[in-house]
Amino acid sequence: MSTVLQADGLGKKYGKRWALADCTLDIPEGRIVGLVGPNGAGKTTLLNLAVGQIRPTAGSIRVLGGTPASGPEQLAKVGYVAQDTPTYAALSVADHLKLGARLNPGWDGALARERIRRLGLDPGQRAGKLSGGQRAQLALTLGIAKRPEALILDEPVAALDPLARREFLQGLMEAAAEHALSVVLSSHLVSDLERTCDYLIVLVESRVKVAGDVDELLAAHHRLTGPRRDAARLPDDQQVVSESHTDRQSTFVVRADDPIHDPAWTVGRLGLEDLVLAYMTPAPARRALEAIR
Predict the structure, then answer these.
(1) Spatial contact of 60 and 10, defined as CB atoms under 8 Å apart
(2) Looking at the whole model, is its pTM more than 0.85?
(3) Under a CB-based contact definition with an 8 Å cutoff, are residues 116 and 146 in contact?
(4) Which residues have CB under 8 Å from 90's CB, separation 6+?
(5) In the chain, where do the E strands start and end?
(6) In a 3-state reduction of DSSP, which class is residue 45?
(7) 193-235, pLDDT tens digit by residue?
(8) Beta-sheet strand order (sheet of 221-227)
(9) Nearest C-alpha neighbor of 262 from the set 234, 231, 232, 221
(10) Are residues 30 and 162 in the same domain?
(11) How does pLDDT run across 123-137, given as a tens digit for each residue?
(12) Name one GO molecular function term (predicted).
């Protein structure tokens, strides 16, 4: 299977601090990938490496089989919408489309104009007068009309209200299906990823904690609740992701390939948010929660 992004021991260091470390990924094409993690986890660093805005300190990264930003052909393959959904306040919507046509050899003007029409945007209106949701949709239109093979978006809906977020993500899913796009989308809003993404990457403290198909990850993770027990007593094939304890009860989130039939446990399924939070909760925070109880 072809990959949209392949990283091997990828790292980026600023001074003495690693913004991303030992990142190894192999993301298949044709997926909508959710990249999630706390602030400072390395999400933006990974995406900036993927589009060639910065270079790695260690390891390697390839996007659609090529080195990011290695030449015009590679640049044409990848669309990018940065964190602040950049538009130029003094330029009109029509000016943005003209700029897109000038900068992108594969520009699809008919697609851009039709999308602007469907969104109800006035071509003569300056971007600075648009709402946040409208600016985000304009930025997405520019990314799609470039006709890339992959579209990379860095927290594009973070500043939008719930309705504008939903409209943006709906438009993104429709575009991905219509144009066979591979999409990598970073967000700290897990509910948005749950509606949109079929592949998940969790970054914590500059490292990849888990990556894979969403349905497969949910099937492989379980919540175990039962009499208090030390994690070391669990079977070797049950990888402990998170744990919490009261005086009499233990709760574990574990990863296991096989069903769990131990009668001592109540076994529950996890939602996507539960899964993400289990990987994001650091050990000190878990100990603090236990102390409060």
Answers:
(1) yes
(2) yes
(3) no
(4) 126, 127, 128
(5) 3-14, 17-28, 32-36, 58-63, 78-81, 150-154, 182-186, 199-204, 207-213, 221-227, 239-245, 249-255, 266-268
(6) helix
(7) 888 999 999 999 889 999 999 999 999 999 999 999 999 889 9
(8) 239-245, 249-255, 221-227, 266-268
(9) 234
(10) yes
(11) 999 999 999 899 999
(12) ATP binding
Judge contact between 184 and 6, C-beta under 8 A.
Answer: no
C-alpha to C-alpha distance for 275 and 128, rounded to whole angstroms:
39
Determine the residue type at 206. S
Q: What angle do CA 148, 28, 77 make, to 5 degrees?
A: 15
User: What whole-number distance in Å separates Cα of residue 140 and Cα of residue 199?
Assistant: 21
Q: Is 191 helix (H, G, I), strand (E, B) or coil?
A: helix
Residue 192 or residue 63, greater confidence: 63
Residue found by looking up tokens 């490496």 in the block: 49
Contact predicate 186/44, CB 8 Å: yes
Say if 213 falls within a structural domain: no
Structural domain includes residue 277: yes
| Coil vs helix vs strand at 260 | coil
Distance CA 176, CA 150 (A): 9
Last residue of a domain, one of 205, 237, 256: 205
